[in-house]
Amino acid sequence: MSAPVAIVTDIEGTTSSIAFVRDVLFPFARRHLAEYVATHGQRSSVRQCLSDARTLAGEPALDDVGTVALLQRWLGEDRKATPLKTLQGLIWADGYARGELKGHVYADAARALREWSERGLRLYVYSSGSVAAQKLIFGYSVEGDLTPLFSGYFDTTTGPKLEAASYTKIAQALALPPGDILFLSDNVAELDAARRAGFGTACLDRGEASIPPGHGHPTFHDFTSLDPFARVP
Ligand SMILES: CSCCC(=O)C(=O)COP(=O)(O)O
Ligand SMILES: [Mg+2]
């Protein structure tokens, strides 16, 4: 593809380490979930998450304790269910605000995002983590507040990351032809979906995820070796 106008990036495994999400963020949510629901369960945002989780599970009669158990199970399965992701974001907000969490972002990713933004590329995020959680990981990051670099954020409320239609919606929201957008991810199934929608793609293989060979997406070990202004085959 020729140089993109916009870059849409995944977070976990792409800008940020899988280990941070798996070993820090998810256990933090798991530890605080029951207490958070007990304390904030009357807030409309929390009630909505609980109700949406019950609907999604097809178990409308579950009480709050049962719903917390359901959410804990989904957490263990890494289910990308919107109510779980929304609730995780609310719980992490407290952790970031108290200084107990600091968002991991690779130094090479922060450096490249700054440079690409300075050079006029429009930058966006598309992650299964909620938009609120995305703003937190980049806002309270070990590389400083990176949120000014981004022009917008997309999560599972736009659609699942494995469906081409989600990327079509993102292109429409950006008012750009799909061919002007480069999507970065460590997940081949996501990259395949983006490619089906007409996006350019780049696979980040940081050695943390097992990425099957032969997928055909241009592959980079980090952001330093990825030059979006060079022609990507
Ligand atoms: C926004 S940080 C937490 C990431 C998260 O919850 C997640 O499920 C990772 O999804 P991604 O689409 O960034 O791989
Ligand atoms: Mg990922």
UniProtKB/TrEMBL annotation:
The reaction(s) catalysed by this protein are: 5-methylsulfanyl-2,3-dioxopentyl phosphate + H2O = 1,2-dihydroxy-5-(methylsulfanyl)pent-1-en-3-one + phosphate
* HAMAP family with a match to the protein in the record: Salvage_MtnC
The family annotation for this protein states: Belongs to the HAD-like hydrolase superfamily. MasA/MtnC family.
Q: What class of enzyme is it?
A: hydrolase
For this protein, the record's SUPFAM superfamilies field holds:
HAD-like (SSF56784)
State how the cofactor is bound.
Binds 1 Mg(2+) ion per subunit.
* Highest taxon, organism lineage: Bacteria
Report the InterPro entries cross-referenced here.
Answer: Enolase-ppase_E1, HAD-like_sf, HAD-SF_hydro_IA, HAD_sf
Enzyme Commission number(s): 3.1.3.77
Species name for this entry? Corallococcus soli
Record-linked CDD domains: HAD_EP
Its assembly, as annotated, is:
Monomer.
Q: Does the keyword Amino-acid biosynthesis apply?
A: yes
Entry protein name: Enolase-phosphatase E1
Return one GO MF term. acireductone synthase activity
State its cofactor: Mg(2+)
Please name the pathway.
Amino-acid biosynthesis; L-methionine biosynthesis via salvage pathway; L-methionine from S-methyl-5-thio-alpha-D-ribose 1-phosphate: step 4/6; Amino-acid biosynthesis; L-methionine biosynthesis via salvage pathway; L-methionine from S-methyl-5-thio-alpha-D-ribose 1-phosphate: step 3/6
Per the entry, what this protein does is: Bifunctional enzyme that catalyzes the enolization of 2,3-diketo-5-methylthiopentyl-1-phosphate (DK-MTP-1-P) into the intermediate 2-hydroxy-3-keto-5-methylthiopentenyl-1-phosphate (HK-MTPenyl-1-P), which is then dephosphorylated to form the acireductone 1,2-dihydroxy-3-keto-5-methylthiopentene (DHK-MTPene).
Q: Keywords of this protein's UniProt record, alphabetized?
A: Amino-acid biosynthesis, Hydrolase, Magnesium, Metal-binding, Methionine biosynthesis
